[in-house]
Structures
1.
Amino acid sequence: MQIADEQQDVQHSIPDLDNVNIKLGDDEKKVNQISSNTVSQVQQPQQVNIPMPPLPQKTADPSFLSQLFHCLFKGLAIFVFFIPEGLLNLTYCFIVVVILSAIDFWTVKNITGRKLVGLRWWSEVKEDGSEEWIYESQVANFIPNPFNSNVFWFAQFGVVLTWGILILLDLIGLRWFNAVLAMTAFCLTGINFVGFYKCRGEHQKKAKEYMTKIGLKAIQQW
Amino acid sequence: MTDNQQVPFGSGMFQGQAKFVDYAHMNQQEVQVNTLDEPVMDTLLRDINMILYKLSYVIIPRMKETQGRKLRNWDLWGPLLLSLLLAMTLGINSNQSSDTIFGTIFIIMWGGSAVITVNAKLLGGQVSFFQSVCVLGYCVFPINVAAVLITFLQSYLGFFLRLIIVGAAFLWSTFSSLSFMSSMMNEEKKVISVYPIFLFYMFLSWFCIFI
């Protein structure tokens, strides 16, 4: 390893203890020897093969478009829900809120979940008719961008909470139609939230296993 | 947790198995389509193709269950859109307040599908809840077509012509869903699980003619 150009005549390069430059004066020779000793001790190539663990994947850049879409349909659904009956016929309000909630469900499940936090879940039906829920996540050392991740989880949880509160308020106020609508939206957002939460739990387990494995390998090699 | 280990999940009617997909340890052959990094258009097109496939299954009903294997991937988009469309169409048509009709049709469709599915499950059928609701919802498509036709051609159609159109749609719907439902049930219980479907579509068709 070349330390500096002006010191080229002084051989600090990797380690040939035998070839220490003895043309220099005593002090310098001592210094050189000491430093090349230490250099060589530190840099003596070890014969062990520790597979370098892949560095943590660069966290994805905050993706504002995905965040926007994540929050857009949810916000619109809640907004339309609050439009008073005088302005918007109850039927149309129902249709619009249900369609917006459905679009939001699909967007979060298939697109923003992948882009923001790298998780995905779905269910398949097996041969004998039973359901199987499948969770999928990125490789174990993936770390989502914290901004993305915060927006995702706060928005999802916030919306579930909001619809829950609205259900309660409507039941107390005996507005059945609104309550049913709020329940539908609550179910849709809630299912998404639960699915992603379970998927995230699985991913964290996977990451922990991976870290343990790397740790064990490193210890074995010492 | 080992790769692809299955764990029990949920309870009661919604019981299933959960499977954790671990890409780091899968061989090349095992890797399913890695859907995590696909572009948005792919996801969209895949879902649209699924919906269209199911619609084609309804339009050309096939009796063999093996050909309906893709039906296993249930999705509720079809039933949602079809129920909204049906409810709106019949609401426009009717003399009574369209709000009431809308609500009635919507609830009947979803409630009816749920009841038929529960009936089938209680009779020992091996069908998943959502899959059955999905198929019943998609099979409302012919009745939907009839309702739209009647709405737009109102002045040209006498009563008997309406009856014939709706009757044909009803038979078509029932036949489509029969081929799916009856394959799920035992021989002796087929009739009793198919009868509610018959009633269900008859009820909806009745609405088309008389409202």
Note: Chain B touches chain A at residues 1, 6, 9-10, 14-24, 35-37, 40, 43, 47, 72-74, 77, 80, 84, 88, 91, 98-99, 102-103, 125-128, 130-131, 184 (CB under 8 Å).
2.
Amino acid sequence: MSMLVKACKVPFIHVGNQVVSELGPIVQFVKAKGHSLSDGLDEVQKAEMKAYMELVNNMLLTAELYLQWCDDVTVEEITHPRYGSPYPWPLNRILSYQKQWEIRRKMKAIGWAGKSLEQVLEDVDQCCQALSQRLGTQPYFFNKHPTELDALVFGHLFTILTTQLTSDELCEKVKNYSNLIAFCRRIEQQYFEGRLTLARP
Amino acid sequence: MYFSAVFQAYAKFTGAPLTVNAINKSWKAPKGEVPVLISEDTVISQPAKILNFLRKQKYNADYELTAKQGADTLAYIALLEEKLLPALLHTFWVEAENYCSVTKPWFASRIRFPLSLYLPGRMSREALNRILLTRGGPPLYSLTEVEAQIYRDAKECLNLLSKRLGTSQFFFGNTPSTLDAFVFGFLAPLYKVCFPRVQLQEHLKQLPNLCRFCDDILSFYFRLGVSGHSPAGQDSVDANLQKLTQLVNKESNLIEKIRLSLFLCRWTTTSVRALSILLES
């Protein structure tokens, strides 16, 4: 399994002698096997779904990486210990510093290195506001049935809501939008039978 | 380059009294980067902040949009940045034939010697660096695999934009908005520049509604007709005067107080100027 992890990014699925990693390729692979959540959408809805998925990747994912690897307090207290925990010293420190350097290079390339934490949290708020407005009072983003977008948004929001960091600022940004909280709770109850732990107010 | 075209389009859509000042040394811009917006004592350099400032000054292209349409705008802009921008950077700055025969001489001609020998190369390396850092990594190991993937993604992005636009004049009805400015800013250089290696441009030209979208904005808002010349004569003068009079009557104090000037790196303005040259050819 460790060789597979080296060969591709997580998450990945291992089917027979095929290994498929990351959400996009996994969705395509599953679709090729005859299962798709977005077959019922028209072309404009599919375009919209993909655009919102890129919004999550562009803003929410980048903000999560920023907080984990560019906020000094979080890096020292949470990220370095967690990232290096499977490895013995000094490998734990070497690998975590290497990963930090890699992420910070990426942040610099996309223009996020100069942002302050407040600006990043503002971006998260803007993204959550857009998702909340798109979701409205519907159960899922495209009305009655979940799609890849629902899975992606749930994954990110649930992680933000349940991961303990040095401060609650990121979590509080998401909690400002009650329909997003209800969305996460709905999916947790319906598809995970409440086995995941989303804190109740 | 793309954001400069976006802001110019946005200013045209909203009637913001923008003065474009081209410079050929970006570090001499007020904040060391371009584009940058200066209004009296206020200096703003980040794209999102420039647009927010213009909106606060009541030059808001999204005034009539619903909340959902505003959210859609954000999502589609993210789609452009994630899926289209890497391939645009590659087409202009990394693809060797395009870079050597078009981009490098074009930009170098607008920069003073000896920086003309160094800066285009640096921009090319930065573009490649960005592509590899954001799109490289397992399971894509070689540059060829990364290039193939970014062009697949860019073509899919163009298809999605075409489906979303459909037969409408603009993305949200009959008046242009921020999203139209962004799509125009990203597509127009790709559409109009004559490259030797043209795979993405050829794909765009197979989407007639996106080509029509770019042509309409160029001809109506940038006053470039099919011949590539601005329609001369009294008609355009009268139209401009009428527009200015309306603005003065509406916001007389505001017009007097605000002097908006957009500093653009000299080489970024060549993108829009080149559109006019290429329309002639």
Note: Chain A has two domains: 1-35, 36-192.
